[in-house]
Amino acid sequence: MSNNIDKNRRKFLAGATCAVGAAGVVAGSIPFIASMLPSESAIAAGGPVRVKIDKMKPGDQLTVIWRGRPIWIIRRDEKMLATLPVLEPELRDPKSIIDQQPEYARNEYRSRKKDLLVLVGICTHLGCAPTYRPDVGGVSADWKGGFFCSCHGSKFDFAGRVFKGVPAPINLEVPPYVFLSENEIMIGVDKPSTNLDV
Amino acid sequence: MKKFLLLIVLLLVPLLTFASDDSSSIVLEKAPINVHDKSSLMRGAKSFKTLCMTCHALRMLQYNSFAKKAGITIDLMPAKDKEWWFAKAPPDLSLTVSQHGADWIYTYLQVFYQDPAVKIGSNNLLVPNSSMPNLFLGLQGKQELNANREKALNEHWRKPHYYSLLNKTSPGSMTNEQFEQTVADITNFLAYASEPSKLQRERTGVWVILFLVVFLVLAYFLKREYWKDIE
Amino acid sequence: MASKLKVWIDDRFPMTELWENHVSKYYAPKNLNFWYLFGVFSLLVLLNQIITGIWLAMYYTPTGAEAFDSVEQIMRNVKYGWLLRYMHSTGASAFFAVIYLHMYRGIMYGSYKGPRELLWVIGMVILVVLLIEAVTGYVLPWGQMSFWATKVLISVFSVIPFVGKYVITWLQGDYNVSGITLHRFFSFHVVLLPLAIIALTLVHVMALHKVGSNNPEGIEIKACKDSLGRPLDGIPFHPYYTLKDLVGVVIFLIVFFLIVFYAPTFGGYFIEAPNFVPANPLVTPPVIVPPWYLASFYSILRAVPNKLMGVIVAAAAVAFLFVLPWLDRSPVKSIRYRGVWSKLGLTVFVISFAGLGVVGTMSLTPLVLFFSRFFTVTFFMVFLTMPFYTKHEHCKRVPDRVTKG
Questions:
Q1: Which of A5, A13, A24 sits opposite B215 (nearest CB)?
Q2: CA of C287, closest CA in chain B: separation in Å?
Q3: Where does the pLDDT of residue B230 fall: very low under 50, low under 70, confident under 90, or very high at 90 and above?
Q4: pLDDT band at residue B88 using 50, 70 and 90 as cut-offs
Q5: What CATH homologous superfamily does C32-284 map to?
Q6: Across the interface, do A17 and B225 touch by the CB < 8 Å criterion?
Q7: Range picked from A47-56, C187-196, C304-313 for highest mean pLDDT
Q8: What pLDDT is recorded for position B2?
Q9: What is d(CA A143, CA A131) in angstroms, rounded to the nearest whole number?
Q10: How far apart are CA B194 and CA B186, in angstroms?
Q11: CB neighbours (10 Å) of residue C91?
Q12: Does domain A44-187 bear CATH number 1.10.1130.10?
């Protein structure tokens, strides 16, 4: 039995084998983790949605589904737009400081064009679907119009901005969208997608 | 160690037999498959789109970016529940090379011939009396059954090549070489379509095997070092 | 800090005790050769099947309408889905290759003889459960072979007198093999049988650790111990066999991944061509063969002209394997010290089993039928004559101590 155990050689070999082995385990786990990302069919199903808006009259609401979530499209008129500056003292985040919208929607109208509002129809409190309430005085005596969530009473204005004193903490989310033309928008991208297959 | 290697070799012997059941009546010509040849794949894809896609779908390539580049998209394919006026619907060809083998497809595309005895006017040596018309008449030219084919058919100990059974009676717009190349490209594309991940598979494999060989060297020296303790 | 945690855990859970009893102070014979790697390979492949199986189950749909397409979705649209699938299909065949070689080691070195008879029987139970696991897994891609091979295998139950037909309907959950059958086989394949295999494997290793490993010489190392109770011809499992097994495992992985990356269908033996055609109850494929690992048993079934007798004979083949420890009357364990009759018997056994397997994947021609019957006979002859030749043959004297190598 050999008594000359080279401890350093053993430590080196054991260490090197462990290090390379660990690298192998990390590399080997990549396919497993990557496979859990959305598959090609999920990516395709989550692709942008085209919506024709030519038939929308002022006050109309259109709801479409994008990535499994309801997206509201509202045609706003001048009366609705006039309520926006008036309500500012009652709002939590009137200037849309918190990142709930693309750059082009960080303005007083929270939209690219003031006559069209695009919002994700999910309450920022606990995820219920609020109702579109353009009826003045409908929700309360001083209700000027907007969105009301009946689950826990959260209120949002005609730009989706959240009121103070309600459970919801932040403004309704504005999804990415772009005008393909005067009459059609594409929801889900900031620029028109070249991959326009159905 | 020698026994171990012998074992591995013995386990691989069945590969030689190849589990395919070749019950075709003619020799299957060897298809020159090379899925690494991207230009061949693109030519094949475009030929497929022009010649085959009116009737045959490739639904499993719906999200395949190479197919989309060739203009093969789901909206241009026949719908899944489309009604066909012939009895058997044309099959989806997404897996045809895995099902039949590349050689079978390559041969199939070359053995159409004119047959006045059949209603549609054309027939095929590998799949007799089907409703698939001879789409290659214009390109390949007219083939007819060879009147002297009895001799080739009666050689029981070997199968005949299709060219012993068929005669080219009038030329098509392509030369023989051009037509064979077209058919080879289509077969190549269909081989790709049966398994698009093959290219990535072969690339990834190199790294995995390389890593394991390096790791083997380390593990072996580590083992040997500790086993010095044992006489 | 770490040692304090160790003490805290050890006061509440036998962590160090388990590590010492089963790994660092568990003594294994010092002369184990490469045949002893197949046990750890089985564990590795089991782990592979479980992990890739869990991942595949994230995307696979176990219904008649969607199963086939879901597998192709995995192959084409899930990132690295092709890798998960091929690792699982190669793993299935690798499992049987490894298990058959593991069993061969046991037969060759007499590892089933006392006090390891129960260990062998537990292993045989694992084999049977594994065969059922493979059959329930094979149906899942819902290709032509999945459907028709399952139909043929289930029809075996029709030999049960009086209730056979009802058993079949009960098993199928329907009047024919259908999506309902597929769905319940999915439950068996993913939950019931893996749990059984894991439990049985634990029991198997516990039984092994109670008696200790056999070795190529067939010498009981526990017969000669030192003053501290350690076998003189034994070495601690860790680090010696952990490191040796590591080398073996890496070589195995190289062969395994060469197949996964460069020959996943293995010439049509691991994934059959007809299985790329979606299942069709109205069209029978020209040849219905079972996967290669079932071929030997299928051969025996086919060799017997009567269906009921065929099932009984095939079952008898498995039964003989179960009682092998009691058929073998040799005083000597390992083939190295046995007489010429045992060596002949082992050779005939291997050739018969392999021969049955080869013809089992071929369509039934007169020549194939002849060899199926010939090898069935030779297979049984080995077992039937074993009690006699093992008792009376002349064996060499087995040494008390393991010499070098």
A1: A24
A2: 8
A3: confident
A4: confident
A5: Cytochrome Bc1 Complex; Chain C (1.20.810.10)
A6: no
A7: C187-196
A8: 61
A9: 14
A10: 12
A11: 23
A12: no
**Phi, psi at A181, each rounded to 5°:** -160, -175
CA distances from B47 to B32, B67, B179, B191, C330 (A): 17, 12, 11, 14, 71
Burial class of residue A65 (count of CB atoms within 10 Å of its CB; 0-12, 13-18, 19+): exposed
Q: Is the pLDDT of residue C322 over 90?
A: yes
Cβ–Cβ under 8 Å, residues C279 and C350: no
The amino acid that residue A68 corresponds to is: G
What the block records as the tokens of A114 is 């003031």
H or E element at residue C303: helix C292-303
Chain C interface, best mutation among B201, B206, B215, by max C CB count within 10 A: B201
* Residue C288 CB neighbour total at 10 angstroms: 15
pLDDT at B25: 85
Could you tell me the CA-to-CA distances from B125 to A52, B144, C104 in Å, in that order?
Answer: 54, 11, 49
Count of CA atoms in the C-beta half-sphere (13 A) of B163: 3
Helix (H, G, I), strand (E, B) or coil at C345: helix
Q: How far is C293 from chain A, CA to nearest CA, in Å?
A: 28
**Stated pTM of the model:** 0.91
C78 to A35: CB separation less than 8 angstroms, yes or no: yes
Q: Which residue has the tokens 């004297």?
A: C397
Taking contacts as CB-CB distances below 8 angstroms, the residues of chain B near A13 are: 218, 221-222, 225
- Asked if C83 reaches chain A (Cβ–Cβ under 8 Å), the answer is yes
C-contacting residues of A 149-168, CB under 8 Å? none
Least confident among B53-67, B154-168, C24-38, C93-107 = B154-168
Q: Say which residue the tokens 């493979």 belong to.
A: C134
User: Each residue of B14-59: pLDDT tens digit?
Assistant: 544 444 456 788 999 999 999 999 999 999 999 999 999 999 999 9
Q: Do the beta carbons of residue C209 and residue C114 sit within 8 Å?
A: no
Residue B156 pLDDT exceeds 90 = no
- Chain A 45-104, CB below 8 Å of chain C: which residues? none
Find out whether A163 and A191 touch, Cβ atoms under 8 Å: no
Residue A187: phi and psi, rounded to 5, are -100, 130
CA distances from B154 to B148, B149, B166, C29, C399 (A): 11, 9, 15, 66, 68
d(CA C345, CA C381): 9
Q: What share of chain B is helix, strand, coil (3-state, %, to 5)?
A: 50, 5, 45
CA distance from start to end of chain C? 43
Any bridge partners for residue A178, and if so which? A186
Backbone angles phi, psi at A10, to 5 degrees: -65, -45
Inter-chain touch B212–C250, beta carbons under 8 Å: yes
Which residues does A171 contact at the CB level (< 8 Å), separation at least 6? A92, A93, A96, A98, A100, A101, A110, A124, A156, A159, A160, A161, A162
Please give the DSSP secondary-structure letter assigned to residue C287.
-
* Interface contact A41-C77, CB threshold 8 A: yes
Partner chains of C (3+ C-beta pairs under 8 Å): A, B
Distance, CA of C278 to CA of B96 (rounded, Å)? 12
Residues C76-134: tens digit of each pLDDT: 999 999 999 999 999 999 999 999 999 999 999 999 998 999 999 999 999 999 999 99
Closest of C27, C70, C8, C112 to residue C402, by C-alpha: C27
Supply the DSSP symbol for C147: H
How close, in Å, is residue A23 to chain B by CA atoms? Answer: 10
Domain ranges of chain A: 1-37, 44-187
Cβ-Cβ contacts under 8 Å, A35 against chain C: 55, 58, 78-81, 84
Q: Name the CATH topology of C289-396.
A: Helix Hairpins (1.10.287)
Compute the distance between CA of residue B87 and CA of residue B132 in angstroms, rounded to an integer: 11
